[in-house]
Design a protein that fits this description.
single chain; alpha+beta; Glycoprotein, Type 4 Pilin; 3 helices; 4 strands; rod-shaped
């Protein structure tokens, strides 16, 4: 009588099972779901920082111009300040020039040259070719005047939390 022996290979095939791959994909999906809101919040914070930088630099330039004009804010100060600030901020926050501007600036002289108001407003992201997504509904408009009084408005035009928008009083 013959005995047939069946040889079973003792080496295991290398690779991953479908279950192992599915577990890894599930872990990656959970991490992405957790990290996406954090990323969006940091991006929004960075964009607010840009608005604050524009407002602060415009304020410094307005003060410099007024000191050259015996303490009077003249209309020429607006052009001088804007021409000095906007290219610098644009070069810092968008060095490649591919993003485009996120904010528009407006400076208004008040009290016959005794003061000024600076307004930094979000530019709607509906522009053609814009590759930006700014959804700052809480801090849509930043304002500051010659006395250093800061303000902010939400997307509906109501007063927003200045500390949250500006980072401080």
């Amino acid at each position: 009588m013959r005995i047939h022996r069946i040889y079973i290979s003792k080496t295991r095939n290398q690779g991953f099972t479908l279950i192992e791959v599915m577990v890894v994909i599930a872990i990656i999906a959970i991490l992405a779901a957790i990290s996406w809101p954090i990323y969006q919040a940091q991006r929004l914070k960075s964009q607010r920082t840009e608005a604050i930088a524009i407002a602060s630099m415009l304020r410094l330039e307005m003060e410099r111009c007024a000191s050259n004009n015996n303490g009077v804010y003249v209309n020429a100060c607006i052009t001088t300040a804007t021409d000095a600030v906007v290219p610098v901020v644009r070069a810092k926050y968008d060095p490649t020039g591919s993003r485009g501007d996120l904010y528009s600036t407006a400076v208004a002289i008040t009290g016959a040259g005794a003061g000024y108001n600076i307004t930094i407003s979000n530019i709607p992201n509906t522009r053609a070719g814009a590759n930006v997504s700014i959804n700052d509904n809480d801090c849509d408009i930043f304002t500051i005047n010659n006395l250093g009084v800061k303000g902010s408005l939400d997307i509906n035009g109501t007063v927003s939390n200045t500390v949250r928008c500006w980072g401080s009083n």
